[in-house]
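Handoff note, outgoing to incoming analyst
You'll be picking up this chain. Sequence as last confirmed:
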Amino acid sequence: MPVSGDFLIDTNALIKLLARDPSLRWHMGHDFRCSVSFITLGELCAGAHQSKRAAFNLAEARRIASEMPVLGFDFDTADEYGRIKAFLRKKGRPIPHNDLWIAATAVRNGLTLITLDKHFSWIDGLAIEIW
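Most recent structure output, in case you need it:
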């Protein structure tokens, strides 16, 4: 069953938030509720394994996974991925595969995507906030 009324945070916005960027924290109110995609966690772990502070960054990814709802994969998300990918291909506006999955997760769950990437605005039916 889809989650409603909340946000899904994209990897780049989450990294900016973790870096304690005050411009992101300004957007968040007291009751700010946010979920994260399993794709975003994978991207965080990949970045951690490539960093000089791998243990610290992996611990941060694990902390996020314990503090935020992690949205996974189901048939409806896969169907949404296919719809979005076909639509963007038809328009000649491809975006990275992981971003397609993140967008599909947001649409499937009725969530507004928080991102820094403007290419998400090409996707019909995806509510976004570019922070």
